[in-house]
Amino acid sequence: MERETGSFMKPILETTVLVTGASRGIGASIAERFASIGMNVVIHYMNSHEAANEVARRCMDHGGRIMTVSADLRSKEQIERMYEKLKAHSMLPDILVNNAGVSHYGLLSDVSEEEWDAVMALNLKGVFLCTQMFMPHMISQRYGRIINVSSIWGISGASCEVLYSTTKGGINAFTKALAKELAPSGVTVNAVAPGAVETEMMQSFDPDEIKSIEEEIPAGRLAKPDEISSLVYFLALPESGYINGQIISPNGGWLT
């Protein structure tokens, strides 16, 4: 299986994907999905060293080159160091999945300036810094995929999640604008905006709250992480090159 990269062909086994926040949840599922076809995978994490190594071990079972790398995505200096490390190992990504992020629950009236800045820095600034760092490689080869993991709340907004919703809405606008900017260079930019997914992010809800959410969803259940990673994988395929600037929300019919 090969993909066309503008002026040359590159075997899929030489294609590299960088997944940020890949030590658990949706990020881990995405990393394993790409590894399952033998692609080279870079598993980014910030502090969860052992969890990232466990994801890497599962990915290695499929035979591709697997690498873990730690960086605080709020820091341009650390992202630059990550770039240099990947470059030294010939692992600059052809596909960038901006998945890292944190949730925040609470009334806007209770949000401190420090909390606002911290969530904005990782969820939105981190996407900007990572994309800015790695997109020149894609532009230079006239092929690339940038896929941002957003949220249903970035589309509809959520009460008591104003800060989180704002960051995800910003990602959606970032996606649409950058898609137009990079399209002439053969690079697509899309976002996946999941509804409720069975991950650690949902552990702050008690069973009754989860049941209430499931009753609101026409599908009657939360999504599995692999249902999200399969969509990310599809958007990264060479044949998905005409899908660009889209915010696609797998949410079980919750929002239509």
From TrEMBL:
GO MF annotations, alphabetized: translation elongation factor activity
SUPFAM superfamilies membership: NAD(P)-binding Rossmann-fold domains (SSF51735)
The organism's place on the tree of life at top rank: Bacteria
Keyword Protein biosynthesis attributed: yes
Keyword tags: Elongation factor, Protein biosynthesis
Pfam families per the UniProt record, alphabetical: adh_short
InterPro entries found in the cross-reference section: NAD(P)-bd_dom_sf, Sc_DH/Rdtase_CS, SDR, SDR_fam
Protein family membership: Belongs to the short-chain dehydrogenases/reductases (SDR) family.
NCBIfam families: EF_P_mod_YmfI, PRK12826.1-2
Protein name per UniProt: Elongation factor P 5-aminopentanone reductase
Species name: Paenibacillus shunpengii
